[in-house]
Write a sequence for this structure.
């Protein structure tokens, strides 16, 4: 009886030691990757792209002209990176009339949602059903596979005057990245950074609280909420 009890005691200690070692190992791994963001904002690197010929709005929707006179609209690379790939997308119905500066597409990520504002007034001619089925494809190709809505525009020339293109678009996005650093500092997050240096995790805003998510919608997506 005594030897059996001694063996069980030894086994229990071995199991306990194994559990303790695993917990410590996980804590060490977390310590390596969970970096207080407020101490590392200057080291964070965003590679935000905007191709030639693409217009971008102050609300981070883009517009591409087609030779048919129609335009395609989507969410720019900055918004894709900050919000992350949505879990679902609500597209407008064909024939819907949308006005510039009003919601045209709603994206959902967890319990959060964001409404993208149309950069131009027009009538919905087509929607990207492939993106509705596989929303994550848009983050890899925001300006090709990531298009969301095709519109037949009204007063296109007037709307284009409010949008940025080429060097102006790049300057705008660089300014938005710098402004986002201040946004993070104000939000006081402590987030995990990707293993490849100073690149922040995709969908960084979704890791903040609901108040910060809504603030991002107001300040960067220009929503009225």
């Amino acid at each position: 009886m005594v030897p059996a009890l001694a063996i069980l005691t030894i086994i229990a200690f071995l199991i306990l030691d194994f559990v303790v070692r695993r917990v410590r190992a996980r804590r060490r791994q977390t310590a390596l990757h969970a970096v207080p963001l407020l101490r590392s904002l200057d080291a964070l690197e965003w590679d935000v792209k905007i191709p030639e010929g693409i217009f971008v709005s102050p609300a981070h929707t883009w517009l591409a002209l087609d030779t048919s006179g129609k335009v395609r609209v989507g969410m720019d690379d900055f918004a894709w990176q900050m919000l992350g790939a949505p879990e679902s997308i609500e597209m407008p119905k064909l024939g819907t009339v949308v006005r510039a500066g009003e919601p045209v597409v709603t994206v959902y990520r967890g319990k959060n949602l964001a409404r993208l504002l149309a950069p131009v007034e027009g009538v919905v001619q087509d929607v990207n059903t492939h993106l509705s089925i596989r929303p994550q494809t848009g983050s890899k190709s925001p300006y090709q596979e990531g298009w969301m809505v095709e519109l037949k525009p009204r007063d296109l020339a007037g709307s284009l005057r409010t949008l940025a293109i080429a060097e102006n678009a790049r300057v705008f996005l660089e300014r938005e990245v710098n402004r986002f650093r201040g946004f993070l500092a104000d939000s006081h997050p402590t987030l995990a950074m990707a293993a490849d240096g100073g690149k922040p995790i995709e969908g960084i805003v979704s890791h903040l609280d609901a108040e910060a998510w809504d603030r991002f919608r107001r300040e960067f997506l220009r929503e009225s909420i």
